[in-house]
BioF2-like acetyltransferase domain-containing protein
Amino acid sequence: MQTHLIEGREAFKALRSNWNELYKKDPSAQYFLSWQWLSRLYNRNTANLVILAARPSSSAPYVALFPLRIRTRYSQTGNFYYNDIIMAGNFAADYTGFLCDPEYDSAALPALGRHLAKMDWAQILLENLYCSEERLALLTGPLQQGAVRTSNPSRTNKRDNVNNLVCPVLELPETFDAYLDTCLSSNTRQKLRRFARKVKADPSYKFTIATPETVDRDIDILMGFWHTKWAARKGDKIDTLATTSRHMLKAASAARTLFLPVLWHEDCPLGALASLMDPVREALLFALAGRDESWTTPPPGLLLHGFSINWAINNGFKTYDFLRGNEPYKYSLGAQDRRIHCQLIETKSGRNRSGKLDKRSLPGVLKTTVRDYRSNRRQQALAGLNQVLATDPDHPQALYYYGQHQMAERDYKGAVQTFSRLTQNQPQNALAWLRLGQCQYGQKDLIEAEVAVRHALLLEPANMAARSQLADTLLAMRHKQEATAAYQSVLALPPKTPAEHKLVQRATTALSRLRPVATAPILAAASPLSPNRLQQAQTGLHKPIIKTGRPPTRLN
């Protein structure tokens, strides 16, 4: 069984036909793994999203697809970065999981697990995973090996004791009358029939179903009720949650998978209930509801659920899914328990299993590291730089900032190694050559410093800092005529920054202390070295300064 990671929006789009066929074959497939749902996720943000895929051969279609997200976290106590792998779309979906052709369960799922075991992570959180115990064991078996521990975190809300790993579902009979007779208690049955008759007989009440023309209005009605009910409890998160829900509802509407009835009394909405339609699984998934909390009779919530269940039966749906949470009202409507999984697999050390970061996380780690470095949080910055370079010894930005730190600590020997590696990898990087020359100057390796700085000037002839460094180097070598010319070349450039103004002042001061050199010309950016110094410098410059494939010496 071949496994690999699929990344990027275009690669995901290319999977559409294979994805939809696999969705039809997998009896455990559910709406939040449908193409319609996940394409919404990929259209918004593909950062660190991957699909772990398996197939029998390179010419065969995929038989298993597992959408994942790789995150980067930071340990405050340990001062290190690590990666965790979570389910793609987890924050917006009630269920997560994978697609697998059931004929390939025993081969494909362990193959996915073996691939995961080889990846760079400290934690894998299989949250809200919708699959059987048997499938879960096949997937996670290979992940249990080595220095890891496994736990099953609780997802019970302590405030109201709702267990969000329990997902009540209603198996729908052939008719609504059969539902009333066989799925409800006598009390609930009588209550629902009585209020339904009252609403049907009174023309001041009506149900509407959202259409493309009314869906924006109906979503506004629903979210207005929802916001009023939950604002106090959700606190500062309420607006973010509302925005996420609104996006979800509009995306479902665009995909024609939204069912949104509204109950009205005359022109006043009393409540709204949104469900997601899965025609392949023949399931209607209750997602969100809101009602006028001041209106008690007839009860909008009960009537809207009754209306939705009746509509689902009449339109051929087989299940009415209440999604996560074992709230009592769901059982009063005839639901039965179904459970999902939450399993955490983590390394005992808390660090990535391989000792390296996932390469997808390097840009984010480096961005934070640079911010830490500039904010003088040097220990955090060094931790990040060490980890980036342990993962990618030739990372140009990490090498540059690592060398900068070494220069600041006057570790010129280490900085020469670092900037030598950078110039070997990026020979057109003028700044790297300049920094190399400055470090060699700090070590008193003046000939090598001169060659490195002249190389910088070949690449950027108008680099004032390089001209100034060349002048300092030539003066230290007692080549006063050339040094005078180099300082004059600094003055030939108009200063544009405060740092360049200081360089002009330094050059002016240096020239005033040098004897007048009547024949000193303005230095050309690439004026040649004498043959003897050139040979000496090139011999030193091309010495193997650092072993290939190894990062610079680690800083503590």
